[in-house]
Amino acid sequence: MVEINVRTALYGIIGNPLGHTLSPAVHNAAFRFSGIDAVYLAFETSDPVACLKAARALPINGMSVTIPFKSRILDHLDYVEPAAREIGAVNTVVNRDGILHGWNTDAPAALEALEACSELSHLRCLIIGAGGAAKAVAFALKDRCREVTVSNRTEQSARTLAGSVGCGWTPLSDAHRQKADLVINTTPVGMHPDTGKSPVTEQVLENATAVMDIIYRPRKTLLLETAARLGCTTIGGEEMFLRQAARQYSLWTGKTAPLERMRAAFEEAMKGPR
Ligand code: ATR
User: Fold this and answer.
1) Ligand 1: which residue has its CA nearest to atom 30?
2) Is 187 touching ligand 1 by the criterion CB < 6 Å?
3) Is the CB of 154 under 6 A from ligand 1?
4) 16 conformational bin, left if phi > 0, alpha if psi -120 to 50, beta if neither
5) 70 belongs to the catalytic site
6) What's the mean pLDDT in 104-129?
7) Atom 12, ligand 1: which residue's CA is nearest?
8) The pTM is what?
9) Are 129 and 107 in contact (CB under 8 A)?
10) pLDDT (0 to 100) of residue 2
11) What is the distance between the alpha carbons of residues 78 and 213, in angstroms, rounded to a whole number?
12) pLDDT of res. 67
């Protein structure tokens, strides 16, 4: 830990609940590695708007935003970058002299994680879920994949998301009919401690060559285990998580993030208590 002093800059994450977050471990490791005099804390809150006010007043130089506030804070920022506005979700706040700027680093992070493993242009992609993360992934992929379809427990949300992105949607019960090459889970189904669950049946994966889960605890969800057994390439949630964090670091500091150091901090923190 850097020695905290009168000039130490403050960063943090707002969300609720935050018990599971590995963001402090990863960002503090990056600051330390780069010799940046800053600390990053977890602020579990029920009032994100008050946190934005606090960010201006204290100041807090930058914030990560997570469930369930990514959409809610949009109208309380001074400037929202166009892509984040289009997605309708902000996961990064940059405080520039009291002016709060909102960004979405989830979308490019999802794309980067997928592009590292697969050529996307010929793939039919099925996104499970229709929340904030699904929106970011759908916007990231809509012009990159041959076809994008969303499927969600609540059909109306899938329909609405498909309408705003300009992609297709299908009821979960019909998801196997898509014959998707790439399946992405953006729901919490399968996350610790409910690790025995999968968001889709095995049938949905029958045509898949690659499967990504945005969950990183456990590292191999039941969905990814099934996908691996079926011979698919699997992409764990840590890839998108680390890349969205690296982009946040760059927005805050203007520097390239020490991604491998952040990955090492992530691995170390994963060994710790949940
Ligand atoms: P995030 O911002 O992380 O995407 P969110 O906006 O709360 O979080 O969205 C969570 C998504 O996971 C939603 O699509 C939700 O489905 P509903 O729209 O039907 O609520 C989905 N989800 C959450 N729990 C689920 C469950 N047990 N089974 C299926 N889908 C679930």
Assistant:
1) 153
2) yes
3) yes
4) beta
5) yes
6) 95
7) 187
8) 0.94
9) no
10) 63
11) 33
12) 86
